[in-house]
Amino acid sequence: MDTELETLLNEVRLLFHQCTRIGEEIHSGRPVTIAMRAVLEFLDRNGPTSVPAIARRRHVSRQHIQVLVNELVELGLARLEDNPGHRRSKLVAITGKGKRLFGAMRRRERDVFENAMRGLKVSRLRQAVQTLREVGEALERQRQA
After folding, report:
1. Which residue of 26, 74, 77, 92 has the lowest C-beta tally within 10 Å?
2. What is the pLDDT of residues 62-99, one digit of tens each?
3. Are 44 and 94 contacting, i.e. CB atoms less than 8 angstroms apart?
4. Nearest residue to 35 via CA among 50, 55, 9
5. Cα dist. 33→38, 40, 121 in Å?
6. What number of other Cβ atoms are within 10 A of residue 23's Cβ?
7. DSSP per residue over 14-42, as a string?
8. Can you give the three-state secondary structure of 95-121, one letter per residue?
């Protein structure tokens, strides 16, 4: 029998895959994959960041992020900038074209997800967010111990 934590983590994994599938469906035909979209979102929220820093914050390999960044740069959705803190590790920044595309993607997602969430109380969503943050922080503390 699963513990409450195992049940929660299973639900998180299932929800992640469901959101990925829905995202792929609503963005089919766009030149950006869901993984590339995640990098655009990171850059939009955090500003110019090095590939290794993005990888650390996203809990994925540097190589994975580098491949995505290369594709985004090729599409003109991101650009590389000099990094005052490191000579060899450039900063990745979202371009105006990238901001516009990401904004359009978010609007489409918001329409789909908000329509699906009708009837759910905002207070319950906030509680779920807080719980997931607390679980993530506890797992990170354990990993660093």
Report:
1. 74
2. 999 999 999 999 999 999 999 998 888 899 999 999 99
3. yes
4. 55
5. 9, 11, 31
6. 19
7. HHHHHHHHHHHHHTTTSS--HHHHHHHHH
8. CHHHHHHHHHHHHHHHHHHHHHCCCCC
Q: Are 133 and 8 in contact (CB under 8 A)?
A: no
Instruction: CATH number of the domain at 35, please.
Output: 1.10.10.10
Angle formed at CA 132 by CA 120 and CA 38, multiple of 5 degrees: 90
List the 78-81 sheet strands across, edge first: 49-50, 91-94, 78-81
Number of domains in the chain: 1
What's this model's pTM, rounded to 2 decimal places? Answer: 0.85
Please write the tens of the pLDDT for every residue from 30-61. 899 999 999 999 999 999 999 999 999 999 99
Joined together, the tokens standing for residue 126 give 């906030």
The number of residues making up the chain comes to 145
The C-alpha atoms of residue 55 and residue 41 are separated, in whole angstroms, by: 13
- Report the DSSP pairing between strands 78-81 and 49-50: unpaired
**In terms of residue numbers, what domain contains 19?**
4-144
CA distance 31 to 105: 11
Residue type, 75: L
CA 31 to centroid of chain Cα atoms: 17
